[in-house]
Write a structure and sequence with these properties.
heterodimer; A: 250 residues; alpha+beta; four-stranded antiparallel sheet; 49% helix; globular; B: 159 residues
């Protein structure tokens, strides 16, 4: 089992740059957990005792706002690619989950108890340093994503937010990065599909600079993607009706 | 040079060895700045981290020619800003401007890098504290997202 766990960790962008010996050791400390669609993995404000890495499936993250009298829930992110970490609050004081995680489909996670990770980090501070750098990077990307969502809301325009993100990343993104094409793809409904295809490829196969930028773009464009999927479903229904034989039963 | 006792009083530095505090204090500078002073500019190379000693500061994101307010720090003493100093690509992700007169402590990134190299255990402990600040910024921004449109500070953007 630890061989399978090691493969998940080796393919995780979060653990890129960690010593191979640490990854091998971490794999022995983790256990696989399974969740069915709709099952809660952890709840906001609950004591955060496990750090997770997605092995397969998909997880929705949501939170309740402090001003919502009606306990309104806001969806923040869907995590769907293997290797993505969940429950980073387990490694950050005050060790309370800052979101609720729910399996969106049949999902497998690698789970690390907090005390075990902390003990390993204390004994191997080089690992602890790498872990905290990775967590700061991850949470920093989340801060950036949320701020861009605020911009998108302020301007009622996702493309403005994306342009802002790319401008901010301009001197670190490779010159030939396909991400530079994104604002152009987003301007026309006919090329929206190309935009999401490109983002899906870059968030998995891009370089270490491109991947988090693509991830943030996917977050910002969550509603656009859902609208596109609905539009494509309607289009498929329309096509099947239009192409049906005239004598077919309704 | 800052006073090491002043550093020791800030929660971020609690429990740090005296030798380490002295080394940080040696490179740190206390700055008294007027209202409107910009301490950190978005996209500039992140060369220093700041601790707010008094006053309050606004966190601003530039979009075109607008500066949008995405947060305010100042309720508690010693709040950290400029955390991009600790993460690639080491560029500030937002600008920080003083709301009124403020006093801050500026610590160059080089001092932390030097100490991190000497002592990975100190690096791990320090970055764990930085992570708390970044997580708090995350929660602040996320709470704004939850506000109904036209009530959050973003919609009351600074011109």
């Amino acid at each position: 089992m630890s061989r399978r766990a090691q493969r998940v960790l080796e393919n995780s962008p979060f653990f890129e740059g960690f010593a191979q010996s640490d990854i091998a050791q971490l794999a022995t400390l983790a256990k696989f957990l399974r969740y069915e669609a709709g099952q809660e993995i952890f709840a906001e404000e609950e004591l955060a005792e496990q750090f997770y890495v997605l092995a397969s499936g998909a997880v929705d993250l949501s939170f309740r706002g402090p001003w919502a009298a009606d306990a309104q829930v806001t969806h923040v992110q869907t995590v769907s690619h293997p290797g993505y970490p969940l429950g980073w609050s387990s490694m950050v004081e005050p060790y309370a989950y800052r979101a609720t995680a729910t399996a969106r489909a049949h999902t497998r996670l690698l789970a690390f108890p907090r005390d075990v990770l902390e003990e390993y980090a204390n004994k191997n501070p080089e690992f602890g340093l790498a872990l905290m750098r990775a967590i700061i990077g991850l949470v920093g990307d989340r801060v950036r994503a949320i701020r861009l969502q605020l911009i998108a809301r302020r301007y009622h325009d996702d493309v403005t937010a994306i342009r802002q993100l790319l401008r901010d990343s301009d001197d670190v993104l490779p010159f030939f990065s396909p991400l530079h094409k994104l604002p152009h793809y987003l301007e026309n409904r006919l090329t929206l599909d190309d935009a999401f295809h490109m983002l899906d490829v870059v968030r998995v196969r891009g370089d270490p600079v491109e991947r988090p930028v693509a991830e943030v773009c996917v977050d910002i464009l969550g509603n656009v993607r859902r609208e596109l999927q609905l539009y494509q479903q309607l289009q498929a229904i329309y096509s099947s009706v239009a192409d049906a034989p005239a004598d077919m039963d309704p | 040079m800052a006073d090491p006792r002043q550093l020791a009083a800030l929660s971020f530095f609690h429990g740090m060895p005296e030798r380490t505090l002295n080394r940080i204090a040696q490179s740190a500078t206390e700055l008294s700045v007027p209202a409107g002073h910009v301490l950190v500019r978005q996209n500039d190379r992140a060369t220093a981290v700041f601790f707010l000693l008094s006053g309050s500061v606004q966190i601003l994101i530039r979009v075109g020619s607008d500066d949008l307010l995405v947060g305010v720090l100042g309720e508690e003493e010693g709040q950290l800003f400029g955390w991009s100093t600790f993460r690639p690509p080491y560029r500030y992700t937002a600008s920080v401007r003083c709301e009124g007169p403020a006093v801050v402590l500026r610590v160059p990134a080089t001092v932390f890098n030097e100490l991190f190299e000497q002592d990975p255990a100190f690096a791990y402990a320090t970055l764990s504290r930085v992570a708390v600040s970044v997580a708090n910024r995350y929660e602040d921004a996320r709470d704004l997202l939850h506000l109904p449109p036209r009530q959050g500070p973003v919609d009351g953007g600074v011109p």
